[in-house]
């Protein structure tokens, strides 16, 4: 099964999958509203806007596994993201990224190593996974990597049509 085929639900409760974005490069991020890294939403939105017309999308997955920093309902998360950070990129349902209840999307993502060769559990909120237009995971960036970091931007650009 491809990462594109795994069933998901949007924050609005609609059925979907990453297959709805097939053909686009994706930056998949586990997000949280009450984290010291939450201001990364601004950079994620700018990155999304910068490359959206070239076949790129940021994709957010709220997660409450790190310090209880995403306690809100789906409606509260949507409201926070849109009013506080002007988020326009797709947001999916809150899910687990680690542990026994790790969502199948994150089973696929966490098998990818970062630049230091380390795979496995997500370390914290705002860990970023780059997925190519065909659905292969081609990059992993740890939580403190700024969304507009030169290496991350270069990796995104390398996945976009010329």
The geometry reads as globular
- SSE order, as H and E? EEEHEHHEEH
CATH architecture: 3-Layer(aba) Sandwich
Rounded mean pLDDT score: 96
Give the class from helix and strand content and strand pairing. alpha+beta
CATH fold field value? Glutaredoxin
Q: For the CA atoms, what is the radius of gyration?
A: 14 Å
- Could you name the CATH class? Alpha Beta
Q: How many alpha or pi helices? A: 4
Low-confidence stretches: none
Total number of beta strands:
6
Summarize the entry for a quick read.
The protein has helices at 40-51, 74-85, 104-109, 150-158; strands at residues 7-9, 15-17, 25-31, 56-62, 128-131, 137-141. It has 162 residues and is α+β, with helices and mostly antiparallel strands.
How do the helices and strands line up, and which of them pair or pack?
Elements: E1 7-9, E2 15-17, E3 25-31, H1 40-51, E4 56-62, H2 74-85, H3 104-109, E5 128-131, E6 137-141, H4 150-158
Parallel strand pairs: 3-4
Antiparallel strand pairs: 1-2, 3-5, 5-6
């Amino acid at each position: 099964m491809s990462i594109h085929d795994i069933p998901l639900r949007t924050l609005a409760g609609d059925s979907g999958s990453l297959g709805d974005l097939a053909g686009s490069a994706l930056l998949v991020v586990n997000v949280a509203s009450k984290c010291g890294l939450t201001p990364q939403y601004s950079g994620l939105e700018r990155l999304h806007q910068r490359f959206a017309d070239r076949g790129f999308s940021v994709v957010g997955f709220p997660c409450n596994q790190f310090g209880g920093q995403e306690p809100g309902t789906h409606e509260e998360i949507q409201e926070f993201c849109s009013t506080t950070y002007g988020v326009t990129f797709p947001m999916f349902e809150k899910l687990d990224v680690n542990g026994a209840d790790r969502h199948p999307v994150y089973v696929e993502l966490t098998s990818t190593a970062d630049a230091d060769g380390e795979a496995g559990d997500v370390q914290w909120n705002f860990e970023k996974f780059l997925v190519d237009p065909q659905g292969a995971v081609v990059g992993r960036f740890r939580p403190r990597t700024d969304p507009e970091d030169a290496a991350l931007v270069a990796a995104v650009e390398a996945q976009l049509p010329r």
